User: What shape does this take?
Amino acid sequence: MPAHPGDRSRSHVRLRLSAAALAASAVAALVQPAQAQATGTPPPHPDSALQKQLNDLVRTAGGPPGVIAVLRRDDRTAVYRAGVGDTETGRPPRATDHMRIASVAKAFSGAVALRLVDRGKLRLDDTIGELLPSQPTAWHQVTLRQLLNHTSGLPDFSTAPAFVEILQEDPRHHFDSRRLLDFVADQDLHFPPGSRYEYSNSDNIAVALMAEAVTGERYERLLDKLVYRPLDLRRTSLPQGFRMPRPYLHGYDVTPPDPPEDISEVLSASGVWASGGIVSTPSDLNTFIGAWSGGPGFLSKKTRGEQRTFITGAASEPAGPGVNAGGLAIFRYATRCGTVYGHTGNFPGYTQFAAGTADGKRALTFSINTQTSKTIKPELLAKVRAIQEDFVCALLRRR
Assistant: This one.
């Protein structure tokens, strides 16, 4: 491995931002978990079966060096892990390790926006033209609702040639996060607002800018006031640079036969900001997703109903377990064992799944320290989704 994760970043790392493959279609087929053989012996204890799946996952060619899942059922929490969180030291992943949560950060910008809706500061029908008049005139009719459910038609800044060129020259480039939409300001909408679903990182940049416009406060401050402090998230932050808070779950590029390459600090978070820049821990993320999926008091009943107005077939990126449908900064995952609500994400070195039950009493976070999506190692994603579904089944299982 190189002495420093940035030494080979320009030539070796394939700049696979969580935004790099943003088409809305889900992975076509799931790999179903193996069924217990009818040998006359009782099946293994469910917890042992889950642990075995994680052990097998980290042994998969091209798979993650490590995996950690936090499963909370009411006041009981179980942590499952396999492999390593740092290949140099060999230490296992920990629930208090910082990690890049990738597009799960979109749930946080959604939380800021909907809590402002509950406070009467924002309306779901507010438009870009009303709150962000300096943005292109062609975008002015797009509403907050359409941004949150990815039906805005906004072109994705992270695929703009000028943006990609900057990253290729300097992956640690410090962007002005509030000017990221400038990279696509010369483009028209991809389709009439509200006419179809298309996942775009630009949507959540605009959401954060709207929140700033109506409050006069910086988005980072709003995160702290409306999300971190109410939920006591003490290890969650939105950095601007490439450094990770210590300790952290190291993220890797895994391309056999080469050894895993540490790319945890290759990219600056300023280039994804409200669409994917948040750093959290498995423990903090579990707390958040429980509140966001259905925790009492986090949203009003009316706003919760708006949040859960779903678009059939709208998949998160990458797709989560089961059948996906998209709401306002949240996705519904209908599995063979029941339904959970949450978000997924992928970023160089990390793939995330976080979901909870409709009442918020049960929550699951599932984190691996390599990237996968429908275009990056799709076979690995299928395997991960199958394991995630088994964890959802464990989450929903009656005692």
In short: The CA atoms of residues 289 and 323 lie 19 Å apart. The longest helix spans residues 378-396.
